[in-house]
What does this fold into?
Amino acid sequence: MLGYRPTIGDRVLTGRTHLAAGMSPKSSGPAQELEWELCSQRRGLSGHVQAVTRTYRMPDGTIQDWDILESGPTVAVLALTENSQVVMVRQFRPGPGVTLLEMPGGMVEPEESILAAAARELLEETGYHGQLESAGSCWLSARDTRRSHVAVAREATLVAAPSLDEGEFCETVLISLDRFRELLREGDLTDVDLGYLALDHLGRL
It folds into this structure.
C-alpha cells in the first residue's frame, strides 16, 4: 500500500527480519503526511455521532434533561511482538486536533465478537496478527452509551500491508514497552484507561 512504512520509534523499518515471509522490505522516504487541514467549524452533528436528550426524574423529584451520545462498542488492541515491542498507529485525531500515537482499534460491527473485531482492526490498520485474548472493558464516559473494550495480542507478527478504510490516514510505529508506559503516564495518547487494563491483564504494569 502506498505510504506504508512501519517504524520503530521514528525510524523506518526496512530490515527483512521485521517482514513476513514473502514480503519485500519497504524503502525509507519522507514521513507520511498525516495532518488534517481545518476548513470550517459549526455547531451540531454531521452524522458521525448520534445524540439524544434523556429526561430523568431525580431522587428529589425534580426533572432534568441530559444530552447523551449514543455509540456502539469499540475495541483497542495492545499488540506485543516477540521482542516486546508495542505495535502502535500514528494518526491525526480531530478532537484534540493533533497527531497522536494510539493502539490500533475501532468499532465493533453488529454481530461481530470483540476478539473478531480486534483481529480485524489490528490487521487492517497495521498488517499485524497475533494471539488475541480479551483484557477488559470500561465505559467511555458518564454521558456516552459506549462500552470500550481492549484485547491483547501476543507474539504479534507482520503478515500483510495495512488495508486502510477510505478516509483513514495512519502509519504503523513500533515502540518499547517502557515508552508505552511513559505515554500512558503523560496522557499523550488516546485510550489511556484501556492501556492500563491491558498491562494489568499481562501483569506488566
